[in-house]
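Continuing the batch. This is chain 6 of the set; chains 1 through 5 are on the previous pages. Same settings as before, nothing changed between runs. Recording input and output for traceability.
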Amino acid sequence: MIEHRVRVRPSADRLPREEQLAWRLASVATATEELDAESVTMAVNRVIDNASVAVASLTRRPVAVARAQATAHRATAPGASVFGSRARVSPEWAAWANGTAVRELDYHDTYLAADYSHPGDNIPPLLAVAQHTGRTGADLLRAVVTAYEIQVALVKGICLHAHRIDHVAHLGAATACGLGALLRLPTETVYQAVQQAVHTTTATRQSRKGEISSWKAYAPAFAGKAAIEAVDRAMRGESSPSPIYEGEDGFLAWMLDGPDSDYPVSLPEPGEPRRAILDTYTKEHSAEYQAQALIDLARRMGEKAPLDRVASIVLHTSHHTHHVIGSGANDPQKYDPTASRETLDHSIPYIFAVALQDRAWHHERSYAPERAARPDTVALWQKITTVEDPEWTRRYHDPDPQRRAFGGRAVLTLDDGNVLEDELAVADAHPAGARPFDRPAYEGKFRTLADGIVTPDAQDRFLAAAAHLPDLTAPDLGGLFPAVDTDAVAAYDADLPKGLF
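Output for chain 6:
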């Protein structure tokens, strides 16, 4: 890997474009490297994972709204597919609808380092453009592996959260690079598209604070849509704010660390295999990633803890877990039984209470309003707090991915003063966990979430198409959209309020 230092530069310096981060990202995207076999296998896993969570969310309101907006923008030909619909639509609108479906349940993959990300959010816009432009499965895989490489590099090197900038700012750049790899565009074109994407997808993290709204699902879909539009403009010869990262009125200077910004971004050398996707990991449970290990811990502790005698529970954990999904966020909504699902999946006190009681976690039942309002759950929930433990924060940022920890230590104090303690560093499904996800696990997750939505025969056809993704022709890419009862979905959509389109 080559480490690039990214710093603010005055306009008078006229920083050569070859020394700008956007150009370096574009250069990685446009290099024609042979794909690493393990990276290809993992990319197929993530295509399966995305479809799993997308079909499970088809009748959730934000997904239905996004789908209704998309299907109002039918394509003449060839267009792109939409989960839950027979329509073919303009690719940016397919990316919008499918990106929302993938993100809605907070249930697909994650990568955590200096910042946070869900790199699977790259797949919907890449798949949409691949369909629209007649690319093959091999082309799509090259795009996916490239987008993951770029997003992981940015997430490792540049922290957005410290300045309350939403992580989709890195997603826009990664998707633009993935599209460049998909279409084999010139480096100059991708460079311009990356800069437009960063400029237009920078937003605050209020979408993940306090009373969290449906925009949490829309935010990455918006970034994917914006990246497609940026690539389209760049292909037509339009330029961009430049240098978007290093400029004195640019991203680093005013959104991040300011004039003294100095960020290390490591990118692969020419000829170096693209393997960043292997550092990322998916979710076994539908909740914020930092809750994954704590759900597994709660399930284990719930087997032996006398929950009717709990006086208090303190979760000793990392800075991020404490301040984003814990009591350190100072969000009263995280203790509110009437809070939205989006808020509850960012409340570790709620999640830990339910997982303790049920010794299980379900993407729908665990968030049901009646479940959140159950009196014994509310009573236990109010007894749970988090504290930041410097050791867990250090482990969270360990430079060795195999030693990095996203869990915590739970201290249950009973009404007689006795204490029960246990800890778990990583989720069972993590690559370093007790049961790392493999292809059968991804397929099992798909079949579980598709049950009752996709027939067994259609499930088999989808999994067969995904398994043969490297060999799929352009027309075959439609097989990556599991067949569902679109009439039932349309009946749900018919009850939605109308908008502009």
